[in-house]
Design a protein that fits this description.
The protein is an all-alpha fold. Helices cover 77% and strands 0% of the residues. It folds into 2 domains: 72 residues, no CATH class; 217 residues, Orthogonal Bundle (MetI-like fold), CATH 1.10.3720. It is found in: Cell membrane.
């Protein structure tokens, strides 16, 4: 197990280096000159050349990537071309919104999806199962930003129960801050809960026909108790795989949902940086989000190996 863990960590490090190279090169190939953006189109050529030299834009792309990667490893992503402050400070401010939003959305998706999938698998073909199938199909078909607009219309505009958008900040109190994240977290969670419901239902129905489950029922356990105690643990591997992939969808969905609800998170920062051609900020945000997806999926793989010895490759 120790050897497997070491191999996974080394592989993760190599993958993150490759991801950083791909992110840097992809944004470096975009048309436009950051120096020209900072100085404007009327800048003199000598002034433009001096700023390019100061920013290191006149160096080969490989050297610039190595310098950027070295700075990223120490938390230095450079200075934002738009805000004129360190990008690491901007990201830290926005993470205070995006991270709780993603955690709330994932927790809600897990609670709704797993409960609905279990209830559906408990009585296949019954009313609960049919309702769960409809929920899964509808949830996967409707985009999360449309769900967000619908939630604003119903719970903010019509009923007035929740704020329509904005973030008061954690200084205003934990209750007020979390309250402003309820609707966007719900908008992010519902499509992912639909996917989890479908996967959990299929995995539990597959284990329902296994011999160990029939043996548990023969020993006196009810169908529900046997499914919960013995079926659910064996259905975890495919569910964990989907949870790992869902983190990427939550991050991608946050870009739209944060703009719908006017939340000052990483998604809104990425959108603003793209609109203003702030490539320094955009590179840092893209690297952070990509690294987060890679690390979460690697962690899910390790958890799967831990709970299912069959997934361990021979040392």
């Amino acid at each position: 197990m120790a050897g497997l863990l070491l191999r996974r960590i080394l592989g993760l490090g190599a993958l993150l280096v490759v991801v950083s190279l791909l992110v840097f090169v992809a944004f470096d190939l975009l048309p436009g000159d950051p120096a020209a953006v900072m100085l404007g189109t009327s800048a003199r050529p000598d002034t433009l050349a001096a700023l390019r030299a100061e920013l290191g834009l006149d160096r080969p792309v490989l050297l610039r990537w190595l310098a950027w990667l070295g700075g990223a490893l120490t938390g230095d992503f450079g200075r934002s071309l738009t805000y004129g402050m360190p990008v690491s400070g901007l990201i830290a401010q926005r993470m205070a919104v995006t991270l709780p939003l993603a955690v709330m959305a994932l927790a809600l998706a897990l609670a709704l999806g797993l409960c609905a999938g279990f209830l559906a698998a408990r009585r296949p073909g019954g009313l609960t199962d049919r309702l769960a199938v409809v929920f899964a199909q509808a949830g996967m078909a409707v985009p999360n930003f449309w769900i967000g607009l619908l939630l604003i219309l119903v719970f903010a505009t019509t009923l007035g129960w929740m704020p329509a958008g904005g973030f008061p900040g954690w200084a205003a109190g934990t209750g007020a801050a979390l309250g402003s994240l309820v609707l966007p977290a719900t908008a992010l969670a519902l499509p992912q809960a639909a996917v989890l419901c479908r996967v959990a239902r299929g995995a539990l129905l597959e284990t329902a026909g296994e011999d160990f489950l029939r043996t548990a029922r023969a020993k006196g356990l009810s169908h529900t108790a046997a499914l919960l105690r013995h079926g659910a643990p064996n259905a975890l591997p495919p569910i964990l795989t989907v949870v790992g992939f869902q983190f990427a969808f939550l991050i991608a969905g946050a870009v739209l949902v944060e703009n719908v609800f006017a939340l000052p998170g990483l998604g809104q920062l990425a959108y603003q940086a793209l609109a203003q051609r702030d490539l320094v900020t955009l590179q840092a945000v893209a690297l952070l989000l990509a690294a987060g997806v890679v690390v979460v999926n690697a962690a899910v793989d390790l958890v799967q190996v831990w709970i299912d010895p069959r997934a361990r490759s021979p040392s």
